[in-house]
Design goal:
36 strands, 1262 residues, PH-domain like, alpha+beta, 5-stranded antiparallel β-sheet
């Protein structure tokens, strides 16, 4: 069965087991709910059925108030019911009639009331005792997959919810073996099976356990109810039927209608926004999947067609006609241009225009949603295949059933106020500046977007469509860096042309440079959203203003924005790259990372020039070469295909593959033709596209396998996965190794907003704004949402196919589970990630996935002697121990290193993550020499890759020093730590970095016996932490505790003697008391009674909590620009490259139980510092604790020695309360002051305080 906790899209479903426990008395019958099939553990819920009631709930066919994702409602045999007990409602549901009857027959005899009762359980008189542990509130993300029990496939469950459902409602589903009847004896059955926690969205797992196992198998997941994964379909799930002939989709409802209905939704809460986003991506993914099949057929059959295709298959007629158009099932597909007659410049214009249109549609949709504007756009995807671009979009019926309501280019113009106002709101959200557009001699229109935008009204469906959006982003006027410098060696074969895709007439640009603005180069919406000023869409055209003055002002603002992008924004992005704040893994992620920061790909050359890290330069150069080769490759391949068409060739596949293999060898080989190709075509192309000169020496120094992988990715070509390609030969890519071509696709990204989301409080202040998604989500919920978005956008048939981006997301989930100490889940996701990669043994993604697998396997190791360790596997019902040894982990590690070696070379930082995690495994097991050996491999890479002046190198030096300390290598440790300290100081690093090193140097000096030096560094660390974080920060508290212990170490035992204290000892005692008092106050005020516990990076690394030094394999809070990303300010786990991240290390465990020890230390030190002879005599007398000593005399008054008599319990408790309320030091000062005033009760309190400090027990009166 499944239990539901929380509500909403992240409602948690966990596998539970129900036991109906009977006894001799029917009044003592209970239903016990267990987390596992292990009845030896306490049940989570105990429901006594005495006076409980059951309500049969009729199934509503429409408008059922259920959680998204619930299945079975309205189906035959589905019978939900509710059991009321002790003012609680427990929701049960079975998916078949037989299962329902079984449950009802089992429960009915023990229920007093089997009639329908009030839906309000408060009105029912419950007297039975119910023990219920209330589940966590809020968004819950995890779900446990249901194991197969008894040889039958398990079924998923659903919950019937009424409007008054409580958060702790219990949902139960029938599953063979989940209902166990115990007759009171020992013959009750218990099924042992492992439970596995998975991420869930909309009440269904994002990936079931079976899907994780089948990942990368290229199977097509079925959506039928009898499928192996038993997925519950959400109400928004797209019910698509497939034809058996070509595998395409037959729509009962047109693609456009489905998409526009979802786009027009008005969600009223953040959960609904996320559901809308997922629904959009689901339609987009299914549409793209269907479009790809048609596009492949269009391209593959292009050479067989005549100049014009037949009506119904191709389109030269009709309003939506385009070269080579295809109309099928509400979908229109056509080539980006007429490739038969288009010139190279016209092809580039078409490529730029279609890419810009898709990008602007995406930005427009997000802005319209954020502004609450009801205006729709086209469902559009782009497919690049074999040199052709196919544009696919859903048929909106433009010009057939729509009429233009906003069009400034026609005569007479159309400018309805409603359309103009909606466009203005969208433009404002996009940070675009309104500008005047002069229409004729006497008409001016104030437009927020480009004047080429059109709005069409569909009066039948009450929709407004915005089209021609490709020019709404302002032109980026960027002068090439080489335009101001001469380059004697450049000889580009292509002229620096600037294709004009704007229909507006360019203005006479009066810049000092004669280079006109390139109309195809536009600023990205991510950058515009973050830029401080608004910019006009139509800059550098006559439509940018009604007069010359307005146009010049708008143009100058655009120039300033472009200059800011080049001179400030991009250098900051490069700085983040150099500081490893951004860690792109491979070619497919470089563009994603740069676009997220609002940087266009054309600035790769600038990034390569500005970066100071060699491997960053090489990565950017590889990307530029691969993209430049793609331009040459697709142009030549397209011309080859057109040639085949002109000569009437029919069998072209083999010839095409031979030509493709030769082209790849032309770049990667060492023949004379390859060198000539580089000099005459590739080098000029790189310069033309990226304004970057790459010489022959640098080109041949690039790591060939990495370049090979990038070329395959960008060109849409797949070669065999192997690591034996000989790039030193003239023909490294033979035809026999080429597998196939694959289409590269681009689609809208839904509603993943670019801005930081407003909080619930701000929503109340802004009632007209729509609710924002991803608002206050935990890391688990964010991952569930992100993973769901990814899989829904892929299409229903592509979910289990090999995909490096899928592998990367799965690796991210594995890293999260490692960070939260769930190694079994981390291992499952890491294995699935390896299976999902396109190259299990050669891809870079497989290397980082294996790093996570190493960490997960290492987390399950516990010492058991020799070289073998035990892997604890906790199952359902029993615990078993499986032998596991280091050889398995080392085998995984070596496979990962092999993949790194192939992709980037052994000296690349990508391998550091593997070495670091292997070091952490040995560190966890106490094998410090082995840990240091693997760590030093990473340290050598850091020095070689980053230099000795990099913060990452300092972090590795710091950890090397810590490991050396554990090996008692004090001199080596101090050398490493002092070197790290010098680097941090030279870089003006954050204070916390420097404080961390000071603390470790103090420990090293203490180990060597240099107490004064240790105390000096500890004091520096303490002051730095307090300055940076405040006195009540956990790390400041730890620094105080460390300092106090070092202060007292040289004088151990002195406080308990009668020796005379020297000034140095007194000063040390006072400083120690001050430090202990801060620790005391922190623990006293700690919330929840738990003292200091790990909580993110600010306290301690959860994965390093089993060792007492910093493993540094911890989460890192990434710095980011304001409003950069929805998740930019959250802690992210470094997957790529170095896993050693400064500055945080684990803190010692500080539970509240140590308050007693702190009190004893403070009291002992305070009493040792007492200087008044009278007070010292009183303390001496009380310590003797014997009635024969005589009474205590205070100014002529005599008091019985309080230590000679048992203490009053109430007084003792009062003393403890007072010490906790203020502090032991202040309380003792108060006692001594009262003794001066002859207060007799002060003697009793002092005696209790002394007894608490110096004895293990305190004698109390009976």
């Amino acid at each position: 069965m499944l239990k539901k906790a929380g509500s909403g899209v992240f409602a948690q479903w966990k596998l539970k087991f129900l036991v109906l426990s009977t006894s001799f008395s029917p009044h003592q019958t209970t239903v016990k709910v267990f987390d596992q099939c292990d009845q030896s553990k306490p049940p989570k819920y105990v429901i006594e059925l005495k006076d409980a009631a059951m309500e049969m709930v009729p199934v509503k066919r429409e408008g059922v108030a259920v959680a998204a994702g619930a299945a079975g409602f309205g189906r035959k045999g589905f019978v939900p019911f509710v059991v009321y007990a002790k003012q609680r409602k427990f929701y049960f549901a079975a998916q078949t009639k037989s299962d329902s009857d079984e449950w009802l027959a089992a429960l009915a005899p023990f229920l007093n009331n089997r009639q329908n009762i009030s839906k309000n359980p408060r009105g029912f008189n419950h007297q039975s005792h119910v023990q219920i542990q209330k589940p966590n509130q809020g968004f819950i993300h995890t779900s446990q997959s249901v194991p197969n029990v008894g040889g039958r496939k398990s079924r998923t469950a659903s919950v019937y919810q009424n409007d008054d459902v409580e958060d702790d409602a219990v949902s139960v589903v029938s599953s063979v073996g989940s209902l166990m009847i115990d007759g009171g004896g020992e013959d009750g059955k218990s099924y042992s099976s492992s439970t596995f926690e998975t991420l869930s969205f909309c009440s269904e797992p994002v990936l079931t356990q079976q899907e994780l196992l089948a990942m990368g198998s290229n199977l097509v997941p079925s959506v039928s109810r009898d499928d192996f994964n038993r997925r519950r379909k959400a109400p928004m799930h797209i019910q698509l039927e497939r034809t058996s002939s070509v595998g395409t989709y037959i729509n009962v409802e047109k693609w456009n209608d489905r998409y526009q209905k979802i786009l027009s939704q008005k969600p009223n809460n953040p959960e609904a926004v996320m559901q809308k986003d997922i629904q959009l991506l689901e339609v987009i993914g299914a549409f793209e999947e269907a479009a790809v099949q048609h596009a492949i057929r269009m391209v593959d059959e292009h050479h067989l067609q005549g100049p014009l295709m037949k009506k119904g298959q191709t389109g030269s007629e009709g309003p939506n006609s385009a070269p080579g158009a295809m109309f099928v099932d509400g979908m229109i597909l056509h080539f980006a241009c007429d490739y038969d007659v288009a010139t190279q410049e016209e092809v580039e214009v078409a490529m730029c225009r279609t890419s810009s249109e898709l990008r602007c549609i995406d930005a427009f949709n997000r802005a319209a949603h954020d502004a609450g504007v009801d205006i729709n756009t086209a469902l559009m995807v782009l497919i690049d295949y074999k040199g052709f671009r196919v544009v696919a979009y859903a048929d909106m019926g433009i010009d057939e059933r729509t009429t233009p309501t906003y069009d400034l280019k026609i005569n007479p113009l159309k400018c309805e106020e409603s359309a103009l106002s909606r466009l203005s709101l969208v433009g404002k959200e996009l940070n675009l500046k309104p500008h005047g557009v002069q229409i004729g001699d006497d008409r001016r229109v104030n437009a927020h977007l480009s004047w080429t935008v059109q709005v069409h009204n569909d009066s039948e469906l009450h929709r407004k469509y915005a089209v021609n959006l490709f020019e709404i982003m302002p032109i980026d006027y960027s002068l090439p860096m080489s335009s101001t410098t001469s380059s004697p060696n450049r000889s580009p074969s292509r002229t620096q042309t600037h294709p004009t895709v704007s229909s507006g007439v360019p203005t006479p640009f009066t810049s000092a440079s004669s280079i006109p603005p390139n109309k195809s180069q536009r600023l990205r919406p991510e950058f515009l959203k973050l830029y401080s000023s608004t910019i006009s869409s139509d800059v550098f055209t006559n439509a940018s203003g009604c007069g010359r003055k307005e146009r010049d002002l708008n143009d100058s603002e655009a120039v300033r924005a472009s200059r800011y992008l080049r001179e400030q924004w991009i250098p900051q992005v490069v700085k983040n790259l150099d500081e490893l704040e951004m860690r792109p893994l491979e070619s497919g992620q470089i563009g994603v990372e740069l676009h997220k920061w609002g940087v266009n790909i054309r600035y790769l050359g600038m990034i390569a020039q500005l970066s100071h890290i060699p491997y960053i330069k090489d990565m950017m150069c590889i990307e530029m070469v691969a993209r430049s080769f793609k331009s040459l490759f697709v142009t030549s391949l397209r011309q080859l295909m057109i040639h085949f068409r002109s000569v009437g060739a029919t069998q072209i596949e083999e010839e095409t593959k031979n030509w493709t293999a030769n082209m790849f060898s032309m770049v990667l080989g060492t023949s004379d033709k390859a060198k000539k190709f580089f000099d005459e075509r590739l080098k000029p192309e790189v310069y033309y596209k990226y304004d970057y000169e790459i010489d022959e020496r640098h080109f041949y120094a690039l790591h060939r396998p990495a370049l090979f992988a990038a070329m395959q990715f960008h060109c849409g070509v797949i070669f065999e996965e192997n690591s034996d390609y000989n790039f030193a030969s003239p023909n490294p890519c033979p035809r026999s190794r080429l597998v196939s071509f694959f289409p590269r696709r681009k689609h809208p990204t839904g509603l993943k907003h670019l801005s930081t989301k407003i909080s619930g409080e701000q929503q109340q202040q802004q009632p007209n704004q729509p609710p924002q998604a991803i608002c206050q989500l935990s890391e688990d919920e964010r991952l569930a949402y992100t993973l769901t978005r990814h899989f829904r956008s892929m299409g229903p048939k592509s979910k289990l196919q090999q995909n490096n981006m899928t592998a990367f997301y799965l690796t991210t989930v594995a890293a999260h589970y490692n960070a939260t100490e769930r190694p079994e889940e981390a291992k499952r996701y890491a294995i699935a990630a390896i299976s999902a990669t396109t190259g299990k043994n050669t891809s870079a993604v497989s290397a980082i996935a294996r790093a996570q697998l190493v960490e997960a396997m290492g987390a399950q190791l516990v010492p058991s002697g020799s070289d073998r360790y035990n892997l604890n596997m906790s199952g359902c019902g029993s615990k078993e121990t499986v032998n596991y040894d280091f050889n398995g982990i080392l085998a995984v590690y070596r496979l990962g290193v092999s993949a790194v070696k192939w992709n980037w070379g052994l000296s690349h930082p990508l391998g550091m993550g593997l070495h670091d995690r292997m070091s952490a495994v040995y560190l966890r097991c106490g094998r410090y020499a082995d840990a240091l050996e693997f760590h030093n491999i990473s340290l050598d890479i850091a020095i070689a890759s980053f230099g000795k002046g990099h913060v990452c190198t300092a972090a590795y030096l710091t950890k090397a020093g810590i490991l050396s300390l554990y090996l008692q290598q004090t001199d080596e440790a101090l050398s490493r730590l002092n070197e790290a300290l010098q680097i941090y100081r030279s870089l003006n690093a954050p204070t916390t970095h420097v404080a961390q090193v000071h603390s470790h140097i103090a420990s090293a000096l203490d180990l060597r016996g240099d107490s004064d030096g240790a105390i000096s560094h500890a004091q520096k660390a303490r002051k730095m932490w307090e300055t940076a974080r405040g006195q009540m920060d956990p790390r400041s508290v730890a620094a105080n505790l460390h300092t106090a212990n070092l202060l007292l170490k040289p004088f151990e035992g002195v406080a308990n003697t009668t020796n005379v204290l020297t000034p140095n000892i007194k000063a040390a005692y006072r400083d120690a008391i001050n430090c202990f008092e801060k620790v005391f106050r922190f623990l006293k005020n700690a919330n929840g009674g738990g003292g200091v516990k790990g909580s993110g990076a600010s306290i301690m690394s959860s994965r390093a909590s089993t060792v007492s030094i910093d493993s540094y394999v911890s989460a890192k809070t990434s710095r980011s620009h304001k409003n950069m990303d929805s998740g930019a300010n959250t802690a992210v786990i470094p997957l790529v490259g170095p896993a050693v991240v400064p500055p945080f290390s684990p803190l010692p465990q500080l539970p509240k139980s140590i308050l007693h020890k702190l009190t004893k230390k403070i009291v002992t030190l305070k009493l040792a510092l007492v200087e008044s002879p009278r007070h010292r005599e009183v303390i001496r007398t009380i310590r003797m604790g014997d009635a024969s000593v005589g009474p205590v005399k205070l100014r002529g008054s005599e008091f019985a020695n309080p230590a000679a008599l048992p203490f009053d319990p109430e007084l003792a408790r009062e003393v403890v309360r007072k010490m906790a309320a203020i502090s032991p030091s202040i309380y003792l000062d108060d006692i001594l002051a009262r003794i001066e005033d002859d207060d007799g009760t002060a003697l009793d309190e002092l005696a209790i305080a002394i007894s608490l400090a110096e004895n293990d027990t305190v004698g109390l009166a009976a």
